[in-house]
Amino acid sequence: MATKSTQNLSPVAAALGSVFPSSVSLVEQAIADAQAFQAAGEISAAIEKWRALAILVEGTDDTLAARAWFQAGLLLSEVGKDTDAVAAYDNAIRLRLGDAAVYLHRGKAKNALAQYEAALADLEQALSLDASVSAAYSARGIAKSGLGQHEAALADHGVALRLSPQCAEMYANRGFSKMLQGDDAAALADFDAALRLNPMMPEAYHHRGYLKFFLSQSEAALSDFDAAIRLDPRNAVSYTNRGLTKESLGQRDAALADYEEAIRVEPELAHPYTHRARVKIREGRDAEARVDLERALKLACAAGDETHQSYVADWLEQLDEPMEANP
């Protein structure tokens, strides 16, 4: 049987595969490959397949292109690349994928980026298209909490839990909202409820660990971060927060190792560079610390994180003070 080679294909088409049987279209093979990578847990490869497929078919089959962008967005959100996920969902919506799911997931990604006004608009749109989606009420509750609309947020979480009373995500989301409101005891109870329903939920362990750390329950927090990382070893924020917890327990070397792992997992995140720099300053490694702080400042500026920019700038000023005193 004759075969097609990539010799005359565009670079995008070539990226979808090298050699296909003539009885199988390039598009069909691309979909099969993307699904196979996804099933095998090879998420980066699956994302690239879906992206390449979307680019290949746009203009000839915009419905398929939109679905491919949507699939890429779901996987990008799964690995914590929420900015890229939003861009993928934008493309899906641009190509007229107008169902509730795409607005729901874009809203959830914007929540993860603390873009609460934009998230709220997406979640309102999702609910206008399908008012029965409990996850949309739950995510809207998070957006409202982020905007300080606490009573309205709790009402949304109440609707979500009435629609899905055995859903761990609904409890975890309400716990996150209560944490934003400063209701620590109620937030812990919701995280506990989420984990009783689903003990394999890394985000619930992570948020419960974060809350316990700030309640000075460092040993308990460490156990929760261990569980979160065991279930989701790609989450750089979990490594960072576990590092902070280890620092609070005097485990400086172990904390440094966690900050370094966070940087390996997500090199564009500012916080682990800052925390690694702080440890290096305490070890007298000021020159290395300066490199980390300058990198952190650049990343915080790129992310628009003014609070972290100020924190990093203060550390850089402290490094400069001895130099000014002893020219």
**Rg estimate, integer Å:** 23 Å
Number of strands: 2
Strand order of the largest sheet: 1-2
Q: Pairing-aware structural class of the strands and helices? A: mainly alpha
Average pLDDT metric: 90
Shape: globular
**What is the chain-wise order of helices and strands?**
EHEHHHHHHHHHHHHHHHHH
Note poorly predicted spans: 1-23, 323-327
Biggest sheet overview: 2 strands, antiparallel
Q: In percent, how much strand structure appears in the residues?
A: under 5%
Number of helices in the DSSP assignment: 18
Helix % is over 70%
Ends distance:
78 Å
What does this structure look like?
There is one protein chain. This protein is mainly α and 327 residues long. Helices cover 77% and strands 1% of the residues. The chain has 18 helices and two strands. A two-stranded antiparallel sheet has the order 1-2. α4 packs antiparallel against α5, α7 runs antiparallel to α8 and α12 packs antiparallel against α13. The protein is globular. The protein starts with a strand and ends with a helix. 43% of the residues are buried. The N terminus and C terminus are likely disordered.
Write the layout of secondary structure elements.
Layout: E1 3-4, H1 11-15, E2 20-21, H2 26-39, H3 43-57, H4 62-78, H5 82-94, H6 100-112, H7 116-129, H8 134-146, H9 150-163, H10 168-181, H11 184-197, H12 202-214, H13 218-231, H14 236-248, H15 252-265, H16 270-282, H17 286-303, H18 306-325
Helix pairs in contact: 2-3, 3-4, 4-5, 4-6, 5-6, 6-7, 6-8, 7-8, 8-9, 8-10, 9-10, 10-11, 10-12, 11-12, 12-13, 13-14, 14-15, 15-16, 16-17, 17-18
